[in-house]
Specification:
Blueprint (H helix, E strand, L loop, with lengths): L1 H17 L1 H36 L3 E6 L5 H12 L4 E7 L1 H12 L16 E7 L6 H11 L5 E5 L2 H43 L1 H9 L4 H38 L1 H6 L10 H26 L3
Antiparallel strand pairs: 1-3, 1-4, 2-3
Helix pairs in contact: 1-8, 2-6, 2-8, 2-10, 6-10, 8-10
Length: 298
């Protein structure tokens, strides 16, 4: 029984040794296709980190004309902080706002000499939770704040937020479209490459059918062969994408991405690496299955 199950993988390995050129072509096809897909996934993951970092800048600032007493400020902080969309509420006094502005001016801070520290209004800086840093979350907070007329002005960077959301939506759409296209193209190319290997053995397949081989008995070694080739292609794709990552992202674009706020440029997480290998196995298996359905009609 064990020898019968061992026959199929040994037969698959023997087939690969008998047709090294076609075997290498199939592995190379899977490898190149998945390398492009994996490198694209690395770029998307790092750009998502960048957009997540940018989203930390999304906050609502409520300016206050008449400075209330400390009890009222604490009540506002507690009340607004209890909203499900809010992560942090910070009170900024006129003096603190003045010091911030002075620091921001740097060498030109001398322009503020002679001015009082109360020229800028007090404000509440409201930081939102990560899941609510969007127009819907900000809209709920703004609606709540507008119920209190003592907040004279509300600022939340509406134009910047709309552009940011449009960019994130475009990124997700491009990722889904290109990812789906690359997978479909990889399956098409791999299927046709494996079909060539099966076409070269068409006489062998017909002889096996004539001597009484069942369809499952005939097809299983070729399906395993496709899976083996896909697994090897997946491993090579990981190595190839890592080389591209070192050349184009780690060394080439690291300074540019670091300047935009991304602290580290990361490679694919381990679960994504396993997914690349599994995708290679699935491509090889499905490519063999589709080719066998067209060539082996018995």
């Amino acid at each position: 029984m064990f020898e019968r199950f061992l026959y199929f993988p040994l037969r698959a390995l023997r087939n690969m040794r008998q047709s090294p050129f076609l075997c290498i072509a199939a592995i190379a096809t899977v490898s190149v296709s998945l390398t492009i897909l994996a490198f694209f996934a690395i770029v998307v993951l790092n750009v998502q980190k960048l957009t997540t970092n940018w989203s930390k800048e999304v906050q609502v600032v409520a300016y206050i004309d008449q400075i209330p007493d400390q009890n009222q400020i604490k009540a506002w902080v507690t009340q607004i902080g209890s909203l499900s969309e809010v992560a942090l509420v910070t009170y900024v006094s006129p003096a603190e706002a003045f010091n911030r502005f002075k620091t921001r001016l740097g060498q030109d801070a001398g322009l503020l000499e002679g001015l009082g520290t109360d020229i800028l209004p007090a404000s509440l800086e409201i930081t939102l939770k990560e899941d609510h840093r969007n127009r819907l979350g900000i809209g709920k907070v703004i609606s709540h704040l507008r119920q209190d007329s003592r907040f004279s002005d509300l600022r939340y960077g509406q134009e910047w937020l709309e552009k940011f959301e449009a960019f994130v939506a475009l990124l997700k759409m491009a990722g889904a479209f290109l990812g789906g296209f690359l997978l479909f193209a990889a399956l098409f190319i791999v299927s046709n490459t494996i079909r060539l290997t099966l076409f070269a053995r068409r006489d062998e397949l017909e002889v096996m059918a004539l001597v009484g081989g069942t369809p499952l008995f005939i097809k299983t070694p070729f399906l395993l062969e496709g899976a083996f080739q896909g697994a090897l292609g997946g491993c090579l794709a990981l190595a190839g994408s890592y080389v591209l990552y070192l050349i184009f992202l780690k060394e080439g674009l690291s300074s540019l991405l670091l300047a935009t706020g991304v602290n580290t440029i990361t490679f694919l997480p381990s679960q994504y690496g396993f997914a690349v290998i599994l995708a290679g196995i699935a491509l090889g298996f499905l490519g063999s299955l589709l080719s066998l359905r067209k060539l082996v009609r018995f």
